[in-house]
Amino acid sequence: MRHPLVIPACLIAGLALAGCAEKGDETVERAFRDVNVIDETNLNEVMLTVADPNEAVDYFARSTKSTPDRIDLQRGLAQSLVRAKRNTEAAAVWGKVVGMPGATEDDSVDYADALIRSGDWDRAKKTLDSVPPTHESFKRYRLEAMVADANHEWKRADSFYEIAVGLTTTPAGVLNNWGFSKLTRGDYPGAERLFGDAIRRDPTLFTAKNNLVLARGAQHNYSLPVIPMDQTERAQLLHTMALSAVKQGDVNTGKALLREAIDTHPQHFEEAVRSLRALETS
């Protein structure tokens, strides 16, 4: 009389075990999916930082082909194209990113950056104009300053450069750009001051050192500034100063500076030798 009760009990136990097995499989599969997401996130970060830029482009191009609606992968492709200096392609991908759901104001700023890199200043300005003024970031104001420079809007450029300097702990590059802006306008004392500030913030920034020499040379000041420099840098700066002197019409001073540059350089300074030879034979 008890057997009819045993069979249903067995069936119930079997169904329960089957249910547990199915839940177990789902749990394992979900765990693997979670692990894959973590691994992919780490791989994406590696590709964006330490990987070869063109390898990163290939990786993100494959990823976006299989999942084109993922904005994080589209961003990765755009950033990798910028790193690879494929700026026209980068601008096209950033243009796609800013039109996707989940796009941010930072994406628009990065789009403007890519447009500037590809030489499309007008679209870069329109893109920056579309970013709300409440979005304040170092990169946004640095780009605003560059666009204002390109349009010879000097007061706007100065204002944006000043804001950008205040929004970063490493302002040397911005100070150098600001100084070059002053140099192109003919404000040589202002440029000299900004280049000096840039070097104080980053004594290794040779571009600022070279620009500082140009600013001094434009004022017929042919003495090297008191700044950190090694022997090779000193020779290179003397060469820059010599060319500046020649440009100002001070040819004899230029020749003397070229001879000093040749003597100072720890190796054969072919470029300075050619410049001196050209002056002496002309």
Automatic annotation (TrEMBL):
PROSITE patterns: PROKAR_LIPOPROTEIN. InterPro entries: TPR-like_helical_dom_sf (IPR011990). Residues 1-18 form the signal peptide. Keywords: Signal. The keyword Metal-binding does not apply. SUPFAM superfamilies: TPR-like. This is Tetratricopeptide repeat protein. The lineage of its organism: Bacteria, Pseudomonadati, Pseudomonadota, Alphaproteobacteria, Rhodobacterales.
